[in-house]
Amino acid sequence: MSLYNAIDSNDILLVIGATPDEYTTNHKPFNALETFFLTNIENAYGTIGDSFKHHAKGKYYHVYGPLDDLLRGLLSEAEKQHFLNQPCPPSPDNLNHREVLPPRAGYVDMAAFYLRLHEWWPENSVVFDDVCLAYKDRQYVTQRPNSHLRSYSLYRGSAMGGAFGAAVGTKIASPDSSVFIFTGDGCFRLFSGALGEARDFGIVIFLLNNAYFSIVGQGLPIIMPEVSEDRYHSRLTEIDYCGVARACGWDAEKVNDDLSNLDEILNKIGSRRSRSILVEIPVDPLQTLGLNPRAHNL
């Protein structure tokens, strides 16, 4: 946010497929002299007349089309031009600067878990992040896109559990895709009654079990610091999630806290056919990986 807030009339802003809403920029305007907005979504959230012109202080240009084609065109033209500004140095391998503390005993180190998955994703994977820690933590840890997967985070609107329906629809529309869900134990409660109908879809659920509404627990101290923790109502009763999945006809596995069985589980996922599988991960609710900009914007 500090970089975005520093933009002024001396700058040219190029926006590529972003959504300048309360989750990202807190609806702060485009303060640049000129803004070029590239998007592949018609009538996107927050637009007026299919444009963010109302959001811009300076001149605004709205370009619609496939982002990969637009970027190739920009790069091709850029190679023909001589720019007077200073070129930026290559970005460092590690874009993060915060110290991330390890989890307490008995919990999986989620940073190591996400990095292992980042190396493993099969080709043609589709990943949905539910309204849980994954939508901020996974991207914070991996830092860069993965060419093997398309990823969708469903936090806008805070509709907990919505990732399940999106995954089912994706599997029906594209049966050959490998479809994955990251969901929390709170979100899981909102769609688990429909597991039986999806048992033969070949969907993979990574269930983050921390017995806690962590988005609530991590957000309320910032949003409503005057409220005491005993009023958060964020604790969840432990249940046998693998048992629930198996009772609905799913396969189920639980990741060891030292990740010693993770490769075995991933091999099982890679070799299975139509049976859906739930993978439970014990998560430390006190381990904070990615920050939640939305919490600061509320």
TrEMBL record:
GO terms for biological process: isoleucine biosynthetic process; L-valine biosynthetic process. GO terms for molecular function: acetolactate synthase activity; flavin adenine dinucleotide binding; magnesium ion binding; thiamine pyrophosphate binding. It comes from Samsonia erythrinae. Gene3D superfamilies: 3.40.50.970. Residues 142-278 form the Thiamine pyrophosphate enzyme TPP-binding domain. CDD domains: TPP_enzymes. Pfam families: TPP_enzyme_C (PF02775). The keyword Membrane does not apply. Keywords: Thiamine pyrophosphate. GO terms for cellular component: acetolactate synthase complex. InterPro entries: THDP-binding, TPP-bd_CS, TPP_enz, TPP_enzyme_TPP-bd. This is Thiamine pyrophosphate-dependent enzyme. The lineage of its organism: Bacteria, Pseudomonadati, Pseudomonadota, Gammaproteobacteria, Enterobacterales.
